[in-house]
User: Which sequence fits this backbone?
């Protein structure tokens, strides 16, 4: 299997040409056009002139856009953090589950992918809305308690679970959790079990072993989990659109409105590319941290 | 060796589902011993060691350390430390941090930790390696780190799981003597699991041979070799010629086993068995001599047994295979009936190896005290 592309050029070219064609024509070229738009100006309803202006980028610095960028980063960051905190124990549990249970648990993690994101989001609405399943259960419990307490609790007020920042973060965690669990699981599963046993053997308890051995060794998995959760969360559109309230717009929602309702493609393009640049910075930072880690190890 | 038992297995069994890994093992190990658990893979020796470390709980029975029942004590609370087969050196810590890890978990202060870790590194000849990362070390050095890391905690017992299996042959030999001298220096009881009988014989003061979860024999290396108690042990330790037969005569001063393959085998001692039962006579290859075939069977062959013409056993055969190994030559001699008898002859002079040729007619002989009679 130690073949390089040099030894089998024809095969290499055959294999690469279809995906390369796809990438160039359906990804790089459209992306390039949008990039050019970001330096353009509207001329009439549908015409855009490429004038090389920076005004679209300058406009992005006006209120409220920096605030919305900041809010998007904040929501994506909180989502990523929650995914990590919830996902790590789950990944750990799957790693140490018996072999038979393992594949079923992994299936359970991936099961949501079998349903369209839109349907899953609507399902969440059914769960979270005022007459939703959570409030129904809460109402029932409230009534039961109230009966026992002789009406001391007063009138029932449903929990406000939908159309606010809570529901956006809840939805994003729900959607992105598998992306955190899978890389964590693959790192943890590859870890040499005797390292954990050695730690226990040397007198460490389970919690101590977790923080001294498991977490440091799962570093690469944690980094990639953070990255592939944070990036899609940062650009999420559907979840804030359907679950969010009037003030939970994220940057992707603004971009959408620029392309559609505002019909300001150049500005939408500039906002899109600011998002791309931010993502690049994120990836570059991760690469830098990884290299530093490797440098220390070598 | 003091009489104080440090480890005691009492009727310990371990079952994984339907498989019985360890079957009713009772065993005591004494302070200061270099004890070896020996057996083929899957015989339960590693499970026994892991139960001692606390990674497995016995299904039945009790494990005592210093007289205290630790059967259910978690590994981090047992006074034993382990050197893992894969060494399990933490890759994200320096050598010094690895060695100091156990002390840190015990709450030893930073400066004492450092001193003791340095001292332990010196003990395994790794002084000055403290700042390195494990991936800058060779396999042998990583093993020394694992040793230092376990020894620095001054355990009552050090457990070694196949400690030499991952090393290359030359390093393995060096490490053998180093481990034994290290054990003598620190005076800690060592328990080593190995499938390599040479390793066990060379290093251990006492060995337990296991097969299919059962303890077969517990004895010193020389007793295991010279006085095996079963065909399994005789065959597993070293190489052996086995003759199946019926115990025909059993007197206090001699016995005769009538074998199907080599005729009657004469023994100069009694056997603890009932006449008429099936027994096995086992002879080590180096205890068999080979002689040029003359007209008559040799009458005065060494070793001589004065008062009985049957004092030695002589069988006619033909040299079928020869393997010259430098210090010795291994022969296989075919006797009537087709059985091959293994003979090892030391090459005492520089002309020895020219003594016999392939296809040559020879006599093979062994003294009446050489065969071990095995009842099972």
Assistant:
């Amino acid at each position: 299997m130690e073949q390089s592309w040099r030894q089998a050029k024809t095969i290499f070219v055959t294999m690469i040409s279809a995906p390369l064609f796809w990438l160039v024509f359906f990804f790089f070229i459209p992306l390039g056009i949008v990039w050019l738009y970001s330096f353009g100006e509207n001329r009439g309803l549908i015409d855009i002139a490429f004038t090389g202006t920076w005004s679209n980028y300058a406009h992005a610095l006006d209120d409220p856009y920096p605030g919305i960028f900041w809010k998007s980063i904040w929501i994506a960051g909180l989502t990523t953090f929650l995914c990590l905190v919830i996902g790590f124990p789950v990944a750990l549990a799957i790693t140490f589950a018996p072999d038979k249970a393992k594949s079923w648990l992994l299936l359970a993690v991936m099961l949501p992918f079998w349903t369209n994101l839109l349907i899953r989001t609507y399902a969440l609405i059914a769960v979270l809305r005022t007459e939703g399943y959570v409030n129904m259960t809460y109402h029932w419990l409230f009534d039961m308690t109230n009966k026992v307490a002789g009406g001391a609790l007063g009138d029932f007020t449903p929990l406000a679970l939908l159309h606010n920042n809570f529901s956006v973060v809840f939805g994003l965690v729900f959607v992105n959790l598998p992306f955190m669990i899978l890389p964590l699981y693959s790192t943890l599963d590859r870890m040499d079990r005797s390292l954990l046993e050695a730690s226990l053997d040397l007198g460490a308890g389970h919690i101590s072993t977790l923080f001294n051995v498991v977490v440091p060794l799962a570093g690469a998995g944690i980094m990639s989990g953070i990255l592939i959760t944070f990036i899609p969360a940062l650009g999420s559109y559907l979840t804030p659109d359907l679950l969010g309230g009037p003030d939970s717009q994220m940057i992707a929602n603004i971009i959408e409105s620029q392309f559609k309702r505002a019909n300001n493609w150049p500005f939408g393009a500039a906002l899109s590319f600011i998002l791309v640049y931010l993502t690049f910075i994120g990836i570059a930072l991760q690469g830098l941290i990884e290299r530093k880690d490797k440098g220390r190890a070598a | 060796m003091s009489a104080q038992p440090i480890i005691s297995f009492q009727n310990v069994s371990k079952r994984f589902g339907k498989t019985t890994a360890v079957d009713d093992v009772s065993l005591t190990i004494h302070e200061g011993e270099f004890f070896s658990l020996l057996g083929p893979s899957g015989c339960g020796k590693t499970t026994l060691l892991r139960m001692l470390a606390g990674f497995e709980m016995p299904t039945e029975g009790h494990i005592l350390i210093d007289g205290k029942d630790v059967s259910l004590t978690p590994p981090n609370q047992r006074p034993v430390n382990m050197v893992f087969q894969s060494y399990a050196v933490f890759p994200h810590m320096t050598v010094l941090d690895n060695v100091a890890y156990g002390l840190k978990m015990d709450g030893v202060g930073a400066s004492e930790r450092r001193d003791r870790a340095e001292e332990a590194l010196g003990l395994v000849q790794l002084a000055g390696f403290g700042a390195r990362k494990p991936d800058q070390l060779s396999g042998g050095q990583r093993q020394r780190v694992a040793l230092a890391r376990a020894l620095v905690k001054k355990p009552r017992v050090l457990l070694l799981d196949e400690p030499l299996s991952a090393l290359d042959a030359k390093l393995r030999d060096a490490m053998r003597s180093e481990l034994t001298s290290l054990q003598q220096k620190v005076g800690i009881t060592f328990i080593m699991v190995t499938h390599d009988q040479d390793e066990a014989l060379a290093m251990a003061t006492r060995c337990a041979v296991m097969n299919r979860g059962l303890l077969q024999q517990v004895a010193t290396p020389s007793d295991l070799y010279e006085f095996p108690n079963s065909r399994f042990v005789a065959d597993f330790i070293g190489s052996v010629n086995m003759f199946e037969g019926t115990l025909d005569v059993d007197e206090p001063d001699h016995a005769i086993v009538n074998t199907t393959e080599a005729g009657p085998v004469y023994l100069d001692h009694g056997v603890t068995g009932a006449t008429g039962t099936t027994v096995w006579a086992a002879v080590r290859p180096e205890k068999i001599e080979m002689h040029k075939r003359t007209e008559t069977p040799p009458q005065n062959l060494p070793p001589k047994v004065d008062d009985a013409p049957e004092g030695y056993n002589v069988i006619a055969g033909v040299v079928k295979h020869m393997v010259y190994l430098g210090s010795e030559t291994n022969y296989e001699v075919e006797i009537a009936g087709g059985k091959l008898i293994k003979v090892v002859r030391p090459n005492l002079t520089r002309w020895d190896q020219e003594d016999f040729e392939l296809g040559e007619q020879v006599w093979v002989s062994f003294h009446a005290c050489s065969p071990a009679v095995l009842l099972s």
In short: Residues 286 and 292 of chain A are 10 Å apart (CA to CA). Chain A touches chain B at residues 192, 194-195, 197-205, 208, 212-213, 216-217, 219, 296-298 (CB under 8 Å). The two ends of chain A are 27 Å apart (CA to CA). Chain A is about 75% helix and 5% strand.
